[in-house]
Amino acid sequence: MFSESSPSGLAESQQLPSRAPGAYRQFSVALQPTSDAVDPIFGRDEIGRTGDTTPYIEEPPAYSSSGSNEPVTLAMYLFKFGFCDILPFWIVGACILFSPLRQPQPSSGAPSTVWLPEKTPAEREEILQKMRGTEIKWAKRCLIALGIFIILILSVGVGVGVGIERRR
Predict the structure, then answer these.
(1) Residue 106 in contact with residue 88, Cβ under 8 Å?
(2) What is the pLDDT of residues 64-91, one digit of tens each?
(3) Which has the closest alpha carbon to 143: 104, 100, 108, 98?
(4) Which of 11, 33, 117, 168 could disulfide-pair with 3, CB 3.0 to 4.6 Å?
């Protein structure tokens, strides 16, 4: 029943493709259709085609470990945790708008206690500016969330007050 020439029991003409990287490409090119029924509809015809029908595959972009490239700041955490305990975190987060963000001062004159000692002063200033911009963005979000919450509470209070007055 099976051929004795192969260990799998399949004849040489029935052998499965090997796991070599090029083996699957040969089959995928051979199985692709030579013409597409949709091509004449969208204005593509056989004249405009190139001989190669394999798609170009590019490397995916390199992703960072976090979702964005902005630094993690205190105002970001205050905004996010403000949804758990609304007023204190959003109030403190909004107060960050009024506080200056300064480079940490060294406790002594030793260069090992300088903030980010491996960076040049220009790089430290650039990092500080980026952090301050991110901090201000999240502090503004805290202020907006606090304002929306206060407006929501006031409108519910006015609605309840008007409802009680109409029942009297």
Answers:
(1) no
(2) 555 567 888 999 999 999 999 878 999 9
(3) 98
(4) 11
